[in-house]
Amino acid sequence: xxxxxxxxxxxxxxxxxxxxxxxxxxxxxxxxxxxxxxxxxxxxxxxxxxxxxxxxxxxxxxxxxxxxxxxxxxxxxxxxxxxxxxxxxxxxxxxxxxxxxxxxxxxxxxxxxxxxxxxxxxxxxxxxxxxxxxxxxxxxxxxxxxxxxxxxxxxxxxxxxxxxxxxxxxxxxxxxxxxxxxxxxxxxxxxxxxxxxxxxxxxxxxxxxxxxxxxxxxxxxxxxxxxxxxxx
Length: 232
Description:
Layout: H1 11-28, E1 37-41, H2 47-55, E2 60-63, H3 66-75, E3 83-86, H4 92-98, E4 104-108, H5 111-116, E5 125-132, E6 142-143, H6 147-155, E7 160-166, H7 175-192, E8 198-200, H8 207-212, E9 217-220, H9 222-225
């Protein structure tokens, strides 16, 4: 079986390989691939790569640095229907700028960021509460016992639509049990808001495990984009 995380081949081949692996992962657990959104994480890559992805049918891209994302969004404004997902830690002072281009923010992890994204103009940004699945408070995300409190704050914030939860699998731990815990957290959030069913989980090394535990949004970088250029 071809390794879906391999960076060999051209962009189209890698994209097709990952799509096939996602289909297989869905089939293995009785899910439909139509339930999932694959976000291609394009951090450090030039705008030209995003144009090439767009030509191949990609409409969801992810960035984790505000300045880089903002610059790319301006340059690629002509790509109709391209959706920007902010997937990194967001500084409160940059949040209002980020909502100008971001269709979704996957890293809501503290009150100040939620409050800074408030907007009563009628436009909506999708929000995911980021969950820290470790005991290390230095890792991104809110502690599991704080999730409902932050979710309620999102629900009461104009301009934000609570979509669900997000997490990164802890280093040195098997991914599937971690994603199973995230799934349980997701069920708690759904008790607050029945439409907040989304689970943003799974990256290049562990998206198969994420699919098995109910992920709806996969954040896949190098398996599709290839090796990253050096950070600028």
